[in-house]
Structure prediction request, 157 residues.
Amino acid sequence: MGRINRNRKEEVDSVTENVLRGQSVISGSANGRLVVSREPLSFWGGYDLESGEIIDRQHHLSGKVVKDCILAVPGTKGSSTTTAVLLEAMQRGNAPLAIITSGVDSFLALALVVAEEMYRKSIPLVALKPAEYAELPSGHEISVEEDGRITWIQPNR
Prediction:
């Protein structure tokens, strides 16, 4: 067992369990395929609340449907209307399963707090430090835990 950049790795039967410990901004747990963006996303005009598709044609994830995925974005860009779009996507069941950010994003946190109050729906929001965020593996199945732990298994080569 070794430690690399606050990332625990344990080798068991030719697989490695990777663990990152983030700040649980909105508590919850989720499992799903991770879609990682290296660019901020504007939900206003960039996220289709009816389908969960990223529709900002200038964004590198344009065309990806993330409603049944765990979405990692460094943060949001643009105005506070991000809050309204995510809130409505939550109400329609078209939000990601969880969101991971690089640092705390107040617009996303606000949307999820309001969704819990208004609709009794919530998804986890976990903030990582930038160095940890850079380790996230797009396309892997991951778990987000209530305490902010993020884990994934990868085969050893």
